[in-house]
């Protein structure tokens, strides 16, 4: 605890230390460890999958002893474990009906196949005639008999043969004829598949939806007590089995599309095989796919040395699908578009090629309809096109091009693009099954969500880019990235199977034929070998069947033991696992904590789950949910973060950006970026920007401010919000709230709940974000700070990097000073006024340096909102960098070199000598009177004349007091005041030096701007010998007489200061501004009289100083009172 308190002690200096690489994974670099301490380090052996051989052998022996005909044998992992390992999912998943719960499979309960189900069979019509046109119907009797005779059956059937809809019906029809109890659960890899198939079967059997056949996806279910066939996602079944610790609630479990080998499917296979060998011997398991590696799955379920039987159900096809490749598109590929097989991706040329292909397909279809004599085919746009793309961004790119094609004036096809991916709602997904509007052809843009188990009847053409995006994790660094890869042949075959369901079809694979046939992988790499293992390790702990390596070692493709060890270490870091097992320290294992049970119950990354838990603890639950959903959606503004606050964060991190980054022009792109900075409200954080924009949108909807759809779209367009994404995010927020409510995670509404102020909420959110993602927020660089700073200042020619950008390729033969205004005008489009820009040219260089300076007038103008960003880098620098990223044109018109030099000479800007031009430098008058301290003046005594905040106050040296009194005496001479009256307001101009009253005395002032109103004319002035701003009536202004004209040439007698080596405390001032307490303390110090300054540095006419107070400094006092924290001076 002392170490923690010491870490958060802001009174101590922050020290820069080099952190050894690899500490997160438990490997400490030996070069930074003293020899005498090396003996205390725990050396971890890195191993691969050899460990799994012993585990698999033990499991094989169990399966060899399996007696399917004997009495049920209660295992030690049966009912006795269900209480010990009960999770927080009790209320989350409630698929099983109450009758099933009362009749768990045990010694006192008769086995399920002997149970009669007359009531259900008599209540609903059972037509045993099945569609004989489907290829799988030829194998109906063989399938039923094989399933009855074997515990596990592998069915391999081509796409479209009918296995997904028919096999469950064959089973329940057989049970009907035998009057036996039957309860079937069939998994699908995706929600849309489970929902659409359940509806299709209900329609075929004329059963009401949710009666005999139903579905459950996530928290959405349509089931009843009568339901005997349930289509669900893989995750739903997995959570049920983990909770129930048995397969006894089901007579048949059908695992469809097992070829996909995602983590949940592989872990589900582990669970099912373990239960088969222990407490659930009478449940039948059916594995199905069109592209399955049948032998591998058959051997995985080898029982008594006999592999599971394999049935092939693709003896015939109703319709043919013809394959075409990039080589076959030569007639439309007139630009010879090629792909780089070493770098998967989609080039703009490939998008254009697909548009050509769509036009050709549309023309072919229209010609076939024109020649057809069948009246049913007269609808020229009755067939649809399905395009497989790797991700949401690519779908958006393709959709934009299709919309542009629709809007073209040429005789082009009318297309109705429909997006299909996992982030849209189920109701939106169902739109793919609807007919296109009259006169339009439906074009479905899908990710691999449409790859399997979905039949869109009117799809005749499939265009496949043969790409996919896969999560890949480096378990040593725990870094996960979404990588674009070539799809496997199995994936491509599944995609081709979407055509040819009700008519002959075509598939166009946009890769060369030779590459597809000879180089593409047969099957994709299982997720268990490339994705984070945190969630499966937690599920293994919920099973309570031993250490995670003993469970995961049973996988078809076991992960490396080193990866499991690193995952366990990560789970211990985030608090999901304890460091001990039954009180004994273990490297390979740890008891699961309550937080770990919560993490295992949520469909989120463990760090996002931790974020939500911390949000609940700190009473910012809703914001945490929203921020977390931002992270996980992977990625609402139009440019290219479950208490109320915590809910927002988790959802925002789960979706793609709600901001629309990529505008139609570079200008709109920059405008969108600026709007996002405004949404961030000075935080500089995407999380806070999303949080604020989502809450504003939600609040306006609740108050009916966005009642009409047109008004909502106009609002979204104005503020660069991606309306569709923010609605998708809202659905995720609501679903996550429901899940948390089932876990009793609810926003506190009692009077005892914590009420955070806005500034407190900001710091609390930062704390929980840091706590959730520790230690993944440290950055490393190969350069030390000195080397990096030296390089940076060299590139910028000594200019302040926090305020300066530079251009290149400026011909140094030109007189740059002639084009200063043109260069300033470049920044007009990003709303940076020319008065805030200073342009410098480097002699003999092609660089042009642009420094953004403080404008005194805007700085004191509270009527306009100023864009703020955290840190010392000015917002204008962010804008300038965005201009470059948006590829805005930075071109200026220049004169001929010789004409330019001549013109500059006429203006007195340059002088020409010996054929070379040189700038005419203005001599500084009274340079010896400048009061800014030199490098030789380390300590000064004087008075603080005016305080804005601790980073801006003005100091009058004691040596200048007498001179200033003389100036004031001259200005306040009654004769001068009488003679200096202005004739009219027109005589007063901006920037003019004059005298104005302050504290009953006239003092030197500079005019900033005019303020006109109905009653009088006033001017805003800056008192150059005091540092404050004031508003003065025109009648009170005085000009300098000829006698006092020299006063306008004397520099100000004060200089600007800021406190060195400190900055506002984040705890007291989350917005980065000095607190009122700190500023009042400085004012109290100034009121005490004369103060002593110690000058640290002088930058841009601002002195960075320490204020000496007794034996310490005022800077240190602010740190001790926690009004400030120490920092380095970066310039």
TrEMBL record:
GO MF term list = ATP binding; hydrolase activity; RNA binding; RNA helicase activity
Q: What class of enzyme is it?
A: hydrolase
Boundaries of every Helicase ATP-binding domain copy:
144-310
Record's InterPro entries?
Answer: DEAD/DEAH_box_helicase_dom, Helicase-assoc_dom, Helicase_ATP-bd, Helicase_C-like, P-loop_NTPase, SNase_OB-fold_sf, Tudor
Similarity comment? Belongs to the DEAD box helicase family. DEAH subfamily.
UniProt main location, coarse: cytoplasm
CDD domains registered for this protein in UniProt: SF2_C_RHA, Tudor_dTUD-like
Q: Name one Pfam family in it.
A: TUDOR
Q: Which GO terms describe its biological process?
A: meiotic cell cycle; oogenesis; regulatory ncRNA-mediated gene silencing; spermatogenesis
Q: PANTHER family in the record, alphabetically? A: ATP-DEPENDENT RNA HELICASE, ATP-DEPENDENT RNA HELICASE TDRD9
* Protein's name according to its UniProt entry: Probable ATP-dependent RNA helicase spindle-E
The answer to keyword Nucleotide-binding applying to this record is yes
What the entry lists under PROSITE patterns is as follows: HELICASE_ATP_BIND_1, HELICASE_CTER
UniProt keywords (A-Z) are:
ATP-binding, Cytoplasm, Developmental protein, Differentiation, Helicase, Hydrolase, Meiosis, Nucleotide-binding, Oogenesis, RNA-mediated gene silencing, Spermatogenesis
Enzyme Commission number(s) of this protein: 3.6.4.13
Query: Its domain of life?
Result: Eukaryota
Tell me which residues make up the Helicase C-terminal domain. Answer: 356-544
Segments of skewed composition (Acidic residues): 92-105
Cellular localisation:
Cytoplasm
Q: Where is region (Disordered) located?
A: 92-117
One GO CC term, this protein: cytoplasm
Instruction: Spell out the reaction equation it catalyses.
Output: ATP + H2O = ADP + phosphate + H(+)
């Amino acid at each position: 605890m002392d170490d923690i308190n010491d870490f958060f002690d802001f009174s101590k200096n922050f020290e820069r230390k080099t952190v050894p690489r690899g500490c997160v994974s438990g490997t400490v670099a030996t070069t930074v460890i003293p020899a005498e301490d090396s003996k205390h380090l725990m050396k971890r052996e890195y191993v691969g999958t050899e460990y799994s051989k012993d585990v698999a052998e033990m499991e094989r022996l169990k399966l060899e002893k399996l007696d399917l005909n004997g009495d049920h044998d209660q295992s030690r992992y049966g009912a006795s474990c269900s209480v010990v390992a009960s999770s927080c999912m009790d209320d989350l998943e409630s698929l099983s009906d109450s009758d099933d719960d009362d009749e768990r499979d045990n010694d006192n309960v008769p086995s399920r196949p002997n149970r009669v189900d007359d009531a259900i069979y008599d209540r609903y019509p059972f037509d045993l005639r099945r569609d004989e046109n489907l290829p799988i119907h030829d194998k109906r009797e063989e399938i039923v008999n094989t399933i009855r005779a074997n515990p596990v059956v592998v069915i391999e059937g081509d796409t479209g043969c009918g296995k997904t809809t028919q096999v469950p019906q064959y089973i329940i029809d057989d049970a009907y004829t035998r009057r036996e109890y039957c309860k079937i659960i069939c998994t699908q890899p995706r929600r849309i598949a489970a929902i659409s198939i359940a509806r299709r079967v209900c329609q075929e059997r004329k059963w009401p939806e949710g009666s005999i056949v139903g579905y459950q996806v996530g928290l959405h279910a349509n089931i009843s007590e009568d339901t005997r066939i349930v289509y669900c996602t893989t995750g739903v079944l997995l959570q049920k089995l983990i909770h129930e610790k048995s397969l006894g609630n089901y007579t048949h479990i059908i695992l469809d599309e097992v070829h996909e080998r995602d983590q949940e499917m592989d872990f589900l296979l582990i669970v099912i095989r373990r239960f088969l060998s222990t407490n659930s011997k009478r449940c039948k398991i059916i594995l199905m796919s069109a592209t399955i590696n049948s032998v591998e799955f058959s051997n995985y379920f080898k029982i008594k040395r006999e592999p599971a039987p394999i049935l092939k159900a693709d003896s015939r096809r109703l319709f043919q699908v013809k394959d075409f490749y990039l080589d076959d598109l030569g007639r439309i590929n007139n630009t010879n578009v090629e792909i780089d097989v070493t770098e998967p991706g989609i080039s703009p040329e490939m998008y254009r090629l697909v548009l050509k292909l769509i036009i050709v397909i549309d023309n072919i279809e229209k010609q076939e309809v024109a020649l057809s004599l069948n009246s049913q085919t007269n609808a020229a746009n009755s067939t649809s096109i399905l395009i497989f793309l790797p991700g949401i961004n690519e779908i958006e790119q393709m959709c934009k091009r299709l919309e542009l094609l629709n809007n073209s004036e040429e005789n082009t096809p009318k297309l109705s693009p429909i997006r299909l991916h996992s982030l849209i709602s189920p109701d939106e997904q169902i739109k793919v099954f609807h007919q296109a509007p009259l006169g339009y052809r439906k074009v479905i843009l899908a990710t691999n969500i449409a790859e399997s188990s979905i039949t869109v009847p009117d799809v005749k053409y499939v265009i496949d880019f043969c790409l996919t995006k896969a999560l890949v994790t480096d378990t040593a660094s725990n870094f996960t990235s979404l990588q674009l890869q070539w799809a496997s042949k199995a994936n491509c075959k599944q995609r081709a199977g979407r055509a040819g369901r009700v008519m002959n079809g075509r598939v166009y694979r946009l890769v060369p034929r030779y590459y597809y046939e000879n180089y593409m992988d047969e099957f994709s790499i299982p997720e268990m070998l490339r994705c984070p293992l945190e969630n499966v390790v937690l599920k293994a702990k919920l099973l309570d069947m031993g250490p995670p390596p003993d469970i995961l070692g049973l996988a078809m493709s076991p992960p490396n033991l080193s990866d499991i060890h690193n995952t366990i270490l990560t789970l211990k870091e985030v608090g999901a696992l304890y460091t001990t097992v039954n009180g004994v320290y273990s490297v390979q294992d740890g008891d699961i904590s309550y937080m770990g049970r919560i993490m295992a119950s949520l469909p989120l990354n463990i760090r996002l789950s931790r974020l939500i838990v911390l949000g609940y603890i700190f009473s910012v639950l809703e914001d945490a949910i929203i921020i977390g959903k931002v992270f996980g959606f992977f990625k609402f503004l139009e440019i290219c973060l479950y208490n109320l606050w915590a809910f927002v964060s988790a959802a925002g991190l789960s979706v793609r950006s709600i901001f629309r980054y990529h505008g139609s022009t570079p200008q709109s792109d920059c405008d969108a970026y600026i709007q996002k900075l405004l949404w961030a409200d000075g935080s500089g954080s995407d999380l806070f920007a999303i949080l604020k924009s989502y809450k504003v949108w939600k609040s306006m909807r609740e108050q009916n401010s966005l009642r009409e759809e047109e008004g909502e779209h106009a609002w979204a367009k104005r503020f660069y919000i991606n309306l569709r994404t923010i609605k998708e995010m809202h659905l995720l927020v609501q679903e996550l709230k429901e899940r948390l409510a089932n876990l009793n995670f609810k926003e506190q509404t009692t009077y005892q709940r914590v009420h955070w102020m806005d500034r407190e909420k900001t710091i609390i959110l930062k704390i929980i974000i840091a706590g959730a993602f520790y230690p993944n927020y440290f950055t490393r660089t190969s350069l030390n700070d000195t080397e990096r700073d030296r390089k940076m200042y060299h590139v910028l020619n000594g200019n302040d990097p926090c305020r300066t950008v530079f251009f290149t390729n400026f011909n140094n033969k030109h007189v740059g000073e002639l084009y200063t205004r043109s260069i300033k005008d470049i920044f007009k489009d990003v709303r940076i006024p020319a008065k805030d820009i200073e342009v410098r040219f480097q002699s003999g260089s092609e660089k042009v340096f642009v420094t953004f300076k403080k404008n005194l007038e805007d700085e004191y103008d509270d009527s306009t909102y100023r864009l703020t960003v955290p840190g010392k880098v000015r917002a204008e620098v962010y804008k300038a960098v965005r201009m470059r990223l948006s590829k805005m044109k930075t071109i200026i018109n220049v004169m001929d070199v010789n004409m330019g030099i001549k013109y500059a000479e006429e203006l007195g800007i340059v002088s020409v000598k010996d054929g070379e031009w040189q700038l005419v430098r203005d001599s500084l008058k009274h340079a010896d009177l400048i009061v800014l301290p030199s490098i030789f003046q380390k300590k000064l005594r004087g008075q603080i004349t005016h305080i804005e905040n601790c980073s801006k106050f003005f100091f009058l040296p004691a040596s200048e007091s007498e001179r200033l009194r003389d100036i004031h005496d001259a200005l306040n001479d009654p004769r001068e005041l009488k003679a200096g009256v202005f004739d009219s307001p027109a005589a007063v101009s901006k920037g003019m030096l004059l005298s104005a009253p302050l504290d009953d005395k006239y003092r030197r002032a500079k005019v900033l701007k005019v303020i006109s109103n109905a009653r009088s004319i006033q001017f805003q002035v800056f008192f150059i010998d005091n540092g404050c701003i004031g508003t003065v009536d025109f009648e009170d202004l005085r000009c300098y007489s000829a006698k006092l004209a020299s006063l306008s040439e004397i520099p100000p007698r004060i200089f600007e200061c800021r406190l060195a080596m400190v900055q506002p405390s984040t705890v007291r001032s989350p917005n980065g501004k000095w607190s009122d307490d700190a500023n009042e303390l400085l004012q109290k110090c100034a009121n005490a009289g004369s103060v002593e300054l110690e000058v640290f540095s002088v930058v841009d006419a601002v002195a960075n100083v320490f204020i000496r107070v007794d034996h310490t400094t005022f800077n240190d006092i602010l740190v001790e009172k926690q009004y400030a924290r120490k920092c380095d001076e970066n310039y």
